[in-house]
Amino acid sequence: MAKIIALDIDGTLLNSQGEITDRTKKSLEDALKEGNIVVIASGRDPKGVFQYAQMLKLDEYDGLLSNYNGARITNYGSMEMIINHTLDLADMKELLEFSEDLDDMNYTIYYDGKCYTNSMDTYRLEDTQKKNDMELIYDPDLSYNVDFTPNNVLFACHPDKISEPLNKIHNKFSDKFTLVKSTPYYYEVMPKGVSKGESLKEIAKYYDIAMEDVIAFGDEDNDLSMIEAAGTGVVMANGSKAMLAVADYVTLSNDEDGIADYLEKFVLKKEEN
Question: What mean pLDDT comes out for the span 191-204?
Answer without folding.
Answer: 96
